[in-house]
Amino acid sequence: MHQKPLVWLLLFFILGIALEKVNAEEALTSQDIDTVVVKVTGIKHDYERFGLREEALIKEISQNLEDAGFSVVDNYDDEELTATILINLRLISSYLGYSYALSVKMFLPHYQGRQEPLVLWSGGSSGFLRDPELSRLHDYIMEEIDKFLTSA
């Protein structure tokens, strides 16, 4: 018996499994998610003077998500299709003001045993603000959440 047909059969079988996984990931979008965990990073304690408090932001964002039909939970659940909404803010101060970078991502941390998270949506902004303008950061964060909700 020739082993060549067996090798080809095995190769097609392995490729079929790999393509099925790729197609499943491509088909999954933010519209397929009902349950989310909200996480905010980069908000330091002294940012309260800009009107930014991590707990208050999580509460406000969670309320907006619930109003849009999402179920917001405290912990990720591997059994359910639970995504994480991560809001990350970075500020760098200079003598003229602050450079900021804001990112908002929706991802599945452990989708189908993946090592890397599966990002379903991402957005963000960056810029420069002077001290009196830093209260706008809250508005910029909420604008990105609104963009996400519009696309979801």
What is the total tally of β strands?
5
Beta-strand percentage? 25-35%
CATH architecture: 2-Layer Sandwich
In DSSP terms, counting alpha (H) and pi (I) runs of 4 or more, how many helices? 3
What sequence of helices (H) and strands (E) makes up the elements? HEHEEEEH
Which structural category do the helix and sheet elements fall into? alpha/beta
Helical coverage, percent range = 25-40%
Overview of the structural elements:
- The protein is built from three helices and five strands; from the N terminus they run αβαββββα.
- The chain has 152 residues and is of the alpha/beta class.
- The protein has one domain: Double Stranded RNA Binding Domain (2-Layer Sandwich).
- Helix 2 runs parallel beside helix 3.
- The protein is elongated.
- It starts with a helix and ends with a helix.
Main features:
152 residues, alpha/beta, Double Stranded RNA Binding Domain, five-stranded mixed β-sheet, 36% helix, elongated
Task: Please render the helix and strand layout as text.
Blueprint: H1 4-27, E1 35-41, H2 54-67, E2 71-73, E3 82-93, E4 98-108, E5 118-129, H3 136-151
Parallel strand pairs: 1-2, 1-3
Antiparallel strand pairs: 3-4, 4-5
Summarize the structure.
Helices cover about 35% and strands about 30% of the residues. The chain is built from three helices and five strands; from the N terminus they run αβαββββα.
